[in-house]
Amino acid sequence: xxxxxxxxxxxxxxxxxxxxxxxxxxxxxxxxxxxxxxxxxxxxxxxxxxxxxxxxxxxxxxxxxxxxxxxxxxxxxxxxxxxxxxxxxxxxxxxxxxxxxxxxxxxxxxxxxxxxxxxxxxxxxxxxxxxxxxxxxxxxxxxxxxxxxxxxxxxxxxxxxxxxxxxxxxxxxxxxxxxxxxxxxxxxxxxxxxxxxxxxxxxxxxxxxxxxxxxxxxxxxxxxxxxxxxxxxxxxxxxxxxxxxxxxxxxxxxxxxxxxxxxxxxxxxxxxxxxxxxxxxxxxxxxxxxxxxxxxxxxxxxxxxxxxxxxxxxxxxxxxxxxxxxxxxxxxxxxxxxxxxxxxxxxxxxxxxxxxxxxxxxxxxxxx
Length: 368
Hints:
By secondary structure, the chain is of the alpha/beta class. It is 35% helix and 19% strand. Helix 5 (171-186) packs across helix 6.
């Protein structure tokens, strides 16, 4: 079971827990209510709960001209202890005035670490032959820079158009994401960190990331002596992830590589619909399922709520509420393991409501 070793926020004196809910676009509006239900189901082990509905996303942009209203950011900073973000439908083409609200929120709230556990519960791989390999890894993705600084230029030259993008890697960001990776690994049985990079080609940017993670404060004073460090070029890492995922424990990567690897890893356990994540900083955490807005199934009532529910548990665990998080995780695992109540993305026929209701019943049963 995933246990957060990242610095948990103080819980002893908290008398209430205010959670921002940002369903955003597509199936976010169907799965974030399921996450809210899961948190409400464990309310007896939490401070007084308060939920605040907030706006963001492509549809908000089309109505108001902004994808991330200033009121949303202000409310999160001033009134919320944590948040849950659903999904966003960002266009693949450039749209004047639009930028991804989730990327902006990570920067506004300094949520520099994206943490995505990928753990197999049953063979939901969809394969009919050999059983899927056992997967138990965490992708730790730097969340604020790399190509996601979105500094792009389109230049007209005598040979035609040229598109250029700035890639930013800093020592500060690499060091703090490296520290989180080592803290997570230290709390796990295998205690292994694999640094993902492409410094054989990008010797300056990826070279700085690689060298900085290797020089994380604490490595020199013996704090992480029990943690083994390995490295993988990103292309080799993707290949080995599909061939032998069991070799990985904690994978730490710059923003773009971490995004790709964590989504790819979801295929090993059946679906993006079962993978949770949190965006974490030093004083705020935001849960976020990784499946996207899925416009092809939005509104059909068949979206998988598991990723959002697991993200809620992961958020609570990071904040120090381990017991209620355990109960949510157990209910999810006990739902998935028999393989009888699955949404279509996992080969089943159950609806969002049916899966959510069953998980809630298993949570309630743990309190009786």
